[in-house]
Structure formats: structure tokens, C-alpha cells
């Protein structure tokens, strides 16, 4: 129970540490955020609001119109609002604006990390002691798409697009929380692995069962994390979404922000499932024993085939990359070492269980296995042909008996009607049956 609770806590701590303090994960998440259509719509709505709140578009239009058309400036500015919002939405999907967004996100995260990791009393950051998400280059890019005059663009850059995320007055609290989070992301996974290793190490004679239990705990922890994420997500979305129009963007933001948590949970489930399968393979069940007996000749006398098969399987997994650990050097090294160690332990177990098992090329080689398959197919084919022949013979027998049955039925009808005497009926019946 303790290991399961600590496993869930470890998953959440690793996710939070990566999401908040790792620039690569931060940037990837924010890039996905801007790539979501619902979030693009909300951001374009926000930028349009900021544009109309900080720039007198009616005045700018009035200054460029003839005297007789100046009264139309205000209605024109209001009528242009949907067009402005649509153009901003289109601009947010362009590669150039996407690059500006990534750059702004990188700068904001650099400021955040600088605040968190600066343990001195004097805070020196590009944001002047604050974490600022600077969207002004994006605003200027969009304004230029409208052909906005340079003075108006300069006014926009000074008034619109700076979002303060964190101020230095909360520095001490945030530094302590970040250091604690960083420590938890290291200590909790290490503690969980130590508990698992201790449980397996102390279970002499029952290590297969212990390994199955460890795998089951890991799978349960991963599933529990996904369930908690789903429940918490509903609460977070309900809190953030003040209106139904905002709900799609809030839901998308939560889904993207916790995508790393899903990756870690799925990785935990896969690793736990593999551990449980390994424990079952080394267990005392009839299936496990039969499987080890079948593998014994190869594991004992042909380790090249055994380790080669594992190497090919690992190569497929690493090329596929179903989880983040299979795409990083540390994860690849760890998985490889554990897999090879598991094969070696299985070799030793089968050698002890089946000491007489030997690899015979004529029997266990490729030609021998092909011959075995052919033999099995031949035997099953012979049984199938025999069954088909038996069915055909039975059908022919029924067909031959059908006329005699019909004759007997007619004969019985004649006897019942009085057309035949008992002696005539008996003699005719004997003649039919004798045929």
C-alpha cells in the first residue's frame, strides 16, 4: 500500500518538475497550446480586446477619412471587429507567429528559472524581478499584417501584450517550493525503486510472486494517476471556464498541460506490465513451466539466439518509441541492461530446472522446427481427411438405405389396409431386407 501511494506521488512529482523546471518540456507544451484551434480562438479574442481597449481605432480611421466620411469612423471600427479577430486567428496559425510564440515562451521560462534558481537576495532577471510573457512581437506582427502605421504599431507595442506571470515578491515561497519539488522528483522515484527492489530481494523462494506484485502495483499506480487526472481535470476546467465559450479552450489547455503526466503514467503501466509478465514467466504455473521447458534448449546452449532475439525486440521498441524513456540515452541504457539481466536470470533458472535440456540442430534448428510444423499439419490434415471420409461414407449408407425404407413403409401400408396377408407381408419384408 505504501509503495502504491508513493508511486502515485512520484509520478506527479516527476511530472510537475519536468513541466515547470525543464525548458524543453515547457516549450513543447506551450507550442502545442498555441497549435490548438480552441486556444487560438480565445487568444485572438483576447488580443482583439486588448487592441480595441488600448488603441483608438475609430480615431485612427477618422484621421484618414475625408471630412464628409468622418462620422462613419466609429461604426466602421465596430464593424471591423469580427474581421480583426479572424485575421488575428489566421495569423496565430502561421509559422512566423508560432516561432515568435516559442521565443516568448522560452524567454518567460528563462526568467522563471532564473528567479527560482537564484538563491541570493538580489534577483537579476531579464524581466526586472518578474516573469513576463511578452506577446508584443506577436501583436506588432499582426498589426503589420493590417498595414497599420508605424506610430500605431509603436503604441501597441508599449500598451498591449505583456502578461506578468510572477513577481519577485513571491520569490522566497516559489524558491522553496521549487527546491522541494526538485528534491521530491529525485527522492520519491528512488524510494519507490528501493522498496520494490527490497520486496523482491527479501522474497526468497517467492521472487516470481513478488515481481508480479511489484508489476501490479506499478500498473495500479499508473491507472490511479490517470483517474486522478481525469477527475481533477473536470474540476480545473469548471473553475477556469467562466462561460461555455471558454470551456473548449480550458479543456484543451488542461489536456495539453498534463500530456507529460499521461506519458509518465503510460510508461509506468508498460514497465509494470512487463515486470508482471516476467514474474509470471518465472512462476510455478503449468503455462510458465511449459514455456520454460520449450525455451530451455535455446537458453542453455544457444545464448546467441536468446540475446539476439531480445536485441531485435529492443531495437523495434526503441525505433517505435512508445514512451519517452525509449527515446533517451538513460532510458535506453536502463531498459537494455534490465532486459539482458532478465534473460540471464531466466537462463540460469531453466538450466537448474531442466539440466538435461540440450539444443539438437536436427530437432531444435530451423529445419527441425519446420519439419515439426509440417508433421503437425500432416497429422491434422490426415485426421481431417479421415473425418470427411467418414461423413461421406455415412451419407452414402443413408442414401442406400433410403429405398429400402420407402419399400418397407409402402409394404406396411398395404398390410395395414388388408391387401397383404401376414404371411405375404413377412415374406416380402424378408426379401427387401435381404437385398
Report on the architecture of this protein.
The chain is an all-alpha fold and 435 residues long. The protein has three domains: 2-187, no CATH class; 190-353, no CATH class; 374-434. Helices cover 80% and strands 3% of the residues. The protein is built from 19 helices and two strands. A two-stranded antiparallel ribbon has the order 1-2. Helix 2 (23-35) runs antiparallel to helix 7 and helix 4 (57-63) packs across helix 5 (73-79). The longest helix is centred in the C-terminal third of the chain and has 52 residues, at 366-417. It is flat. The model is unreliable at 119-127 (pLDDT under 50).
Summarize the structure.
The protein is mainly alpha-helical and 435 residues long. The chain contains 19 helices and two strands.
List the helices and strands and how they pair.
Blueprint: H1 2-21, H2 23-35, H3 37-54, H4 57-63, H5 73-79, H6 81-92, H7 95-117, E1 130-134, H8 136-145, H9 150-159, E2 162-167, H10 171-202, H11 207-240, H12 247-257, H13 259-281, H14 286-301, H15 303-320, H16 329-353, H17 361-364, H18 366-417, H19 422-434
Q: Rough shape?
A: flat
Overall mean pLDDT: 76
Strand order of the largest sheet: 1-2
Radius of gyration: 39 Å
Q: Count of helical segments?
A: 19
Distance between the termini: 83 Å
Low-confidence stretches: 119-127
Structural class: mainly alpha
How many domains in all? 3
Portion of residues within helices: over 70%
Described by its quaternary structure, the protein is single chain
Overall number of strands:
2
What kind of sheet is the major sheet?
2 strands, antiparallel
Amino acid at each position: 500500500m505504501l509503495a502504491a501511494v508513493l508511486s502515485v506521488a512520484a509520478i506527479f512529482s516527476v511530472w510537475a518538475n519536468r513541466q515547470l523546471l525543464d525548458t524543453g518540456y515547457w516549450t513543447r507544451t506551450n507550442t502545442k497550446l498555441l497549435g490548438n484551434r480552441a486556444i487560438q480562438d480565445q487568444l485572438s479574442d483576447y488580443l482583439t480586446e486588448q487592441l480595441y481597449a488600448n488603441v483608438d481605432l475609430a480615431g485612427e480611421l477618422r484621421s484618414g477619412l475625408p471630412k464628409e466620411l468622418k462620422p462613419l469612423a466609429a461604426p466602421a471600427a465596430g464593424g471591423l471587429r469580427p474581421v480583426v479577430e479572424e485575421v488575428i486567428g489566421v495569423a496565430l496559425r502561421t509559422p512566423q507567429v508560432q516561432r515568435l510564440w516559442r521565443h516568448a515562451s522560452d524567454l518567460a521560462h528563462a526568467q522563471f528559472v532564473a528567479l527560482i534558481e537564484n538563491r541570493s537576495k538580489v534577483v537579476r532577471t531579464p524581466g526586472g524581478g518578474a516573469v513576463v510573457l511578452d506577446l508584443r512581437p506577436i501583436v506588432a506582427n499582426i498589426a503589420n499584417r493590417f498595414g497599420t502605421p508605424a506610430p500605431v504599431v509603436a503604441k501597441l507595442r508599449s500598451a498591449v501584450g505583456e502578461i506578468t506571470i510572477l513577481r519577485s515578491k513571491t520569490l522566497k515561497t516559489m524558491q522553496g517550493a521549487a527546491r522541494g519539488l526538485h528534491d521530491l522528483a529525485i527522492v520519491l522515484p528512488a524510494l519507490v525503486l528501493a522498496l520494490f527492489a527490497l520486496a523482491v530481494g527479501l522474497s526468497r523462494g517467492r521472487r516470481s510472486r513478488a515481481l508480479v506484485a511489484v508489476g501490479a502495483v506499478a500498473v495500479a499506480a499508473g491507472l490511479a494517476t490517470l483517474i486522478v487526472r481525469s477527475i481533477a481535470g473536470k474540476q480545473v476546467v469548471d473553475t477556469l471556464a467562466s462561460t461555455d465559450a471558454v470551456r473548449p479552450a480550458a479543456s484543451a489547455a488542461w489536456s495539453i498541460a498534463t500530456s507529460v503526466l499521461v506519458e509518465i503514467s503510460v510508461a509506468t503501466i508498460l514497465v509494470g506490465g512487463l515486470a508482471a509478465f516476467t514474474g509470471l514467466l518465472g512462476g510455478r504455473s503449468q503455462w510458465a513451466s511449459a514455456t520454460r521447458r520449450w525455451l530451455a534448449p535455446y537458453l542453455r546452449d544457444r545464448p546467441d539466439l536468446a540475446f539476439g532475439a531480445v536485441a531485435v525486440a529492443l531495437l523495434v521498441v526503441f525505433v517505435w518509441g512508445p514512451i519517452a524513456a525509449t527515446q533517451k540515452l538513460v532510458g535506453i541504457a536502463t531498459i537494455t541492461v534490465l532486459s539482458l539481466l532478465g534473460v540471464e536470470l531466466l537462463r540460469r533458472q531453466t538450466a537448474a530446472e531442466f539440466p538435461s535440456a540440450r539444443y539438437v540442430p536436427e530437432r531444435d534448428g530451423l529445419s527441425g522446427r519446420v519439419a515439426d510444423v509440417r508433421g503437425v499439419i500432416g497429422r491434422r490434415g490426415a485426421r481431417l481427411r479421415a473425418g470427411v471420409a467418414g461423413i461421406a461414407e455415412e451419407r452414402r449408407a443413408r442414401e442406400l438405405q433410403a429405398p429400402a425404407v420407402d419399400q418397407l413403409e409402402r409394404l406396411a401400408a398395404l398390410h395395414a389396409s388388408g391387401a397383404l396377408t401376414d404371411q405375404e407381408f413377412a415374406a416380402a419384408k424378408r426379401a427387401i431386407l435381404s437385398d
